[in-house]
Specification:
Shape of chain A: globular
CATH topology of the largest domain in chain A: Chorismate lyase
Number of domains of chain A: 2
Helix content of chain A: 25-40%
Strand order of the largest sheet of chain A: 3-4-5-8-7-6
CATH architecture of the largest domain in chain A: 3-Layer(aba) Sandwich
Radius of gyration of chain A: 21 Å
Number of helices of chain A: 8
Largest interface: A-B, 53 and 53 residues
Oligomer: homodimer
Amino acid sequence: MAKYQKIYHELSTRIKNGEIRSHTYLPSENELMKQYGVSRDTVRKALDLLLNYGYIQKNKGKGSLVLDLNRISFPISGITSFSEMVKTMHGEIKTIVHVFYEQEADEELKQQLHMEKGKVYHIERIRSIDDEKVILDIDYLNGEVIKGLTLEHAQNSLYKYIENELGLKISFARKEITVEKASKEEMELLDMAGYDLLVCVKSYTYLEDATLFQYTISKHRPDKFRFVDFARRMEL
Amino acid sequence: MAKYQKIYHELSTRIKNGEIRSHTYLPSENELMKQYGVSRDTVRKALDLLLNYGYIQKNKGKGSLVLDLNRISFPISGITSFSEMVKTMHGEIKTIVHVFYEQEADEELKQQLHMEKGKVYHIERIRSIDDEKVILDIDYLNGEVIKGLTLEHAQNSLYKYIENELGLKISFARKEITVEKASKEEMELLDMAGYDLLVCVKSYTYLEDATLFQYTISKHRPDKFRFVDFARRMEL
DNA sequence: GAGTGGTCTAGACCACCGC
DNA sequence: CGGTGGTCTAGACCACTCA
């Protein structure tokens, strides 16, 4: 790990622990240079990470103010996958793999996954929290990029397989959140508790070399959906 | 404006225009140094902005790949306010100021706005698109920070007043998206078209010096809600 | 091996803040 | 005024990609 990442890591965990308290100022960049024995640019890169992830706010002439993380609970960034989401939740989680097969990409999938031809994995999983079936995840994965997927992997975590076993790096995602009427099938698959709408999170996930490898639609029962975001004001 | 911001601005607009096409590589950092007559660090800062806002993807040993912006439509970042949202929409927009008064902060508001005592503006606005009342915005503003608000300002844009007339700078926001049952009052205020749920976007907005000045609940009719996000994978 | 981006350094000047 | 963060420079070494 690079120096500036180590410094970011140390400072962020100390802020999370409460060892560095919110509403106080971090040591100045000059001071941090001395403490860590690095150049100012290295310190600044670490602070840039803290800034981007909402840990601090920098003020000219004053210093780096530590923000109050508990005002809205973590995580700062949006949901990336079910397994990341459940970390922040309580309750017993189960996954039922409802659909799992490999198919030739049809016209719509070719367009969604931006591929010419080839195989696509189609996976549907029902997620239950405390024995209530409240989330339906529908995944389409480019079979030319992700190879050797099994039902086992779908039962556990797709991301773990992709990152750890295939050694691919997930880089970025584009997400869209809308609310849609549940279909009859969906009403039967999930425990709808009287609701007839589902919150749909559509996401397109890309690898480090910018190849799109996954298109996911994650449908949540409205009362079990929550999305938290931290955003700095767009410049320009 | 700083040099690196100018370079960012030029490159980003050229990407948006299509003058620089997606799926091509930008000139190398070395090349950009020469073209703009700046140091490598300055070029890199400009590229960092492009990276953060989802314009490019950098690959070691290869270069900076221009991403396809139209895959999911803009804006890249989330909603910050109604007036920013409508820029990306079609249809005729109207605002009705439904509630506007100044009140002494009660216990709940003191906690939400993180203030000891003082006045709070309470504003409720109904937003209509093509004469359908589909959004209810409820704003609470710290009256000790934001002074001299009038009904006029509420009718137009609060942010314009705060940034242009008061000269304050809005810095960052924390947002939470959930779905809740509409109350009887809300059902009457809005054209619900048979829906009984509302998508609630709660946001806490901060100034540059990290003072919280606004707490907003924006309630959207489910079919009129859409949120787009671009996220890089969290490191560490 | 030449070119790319990733990291790190040392030094400089500026605008802003608070005393 | 001294200290803070914001910007910019010039130079260095590394790991990676591609021919």
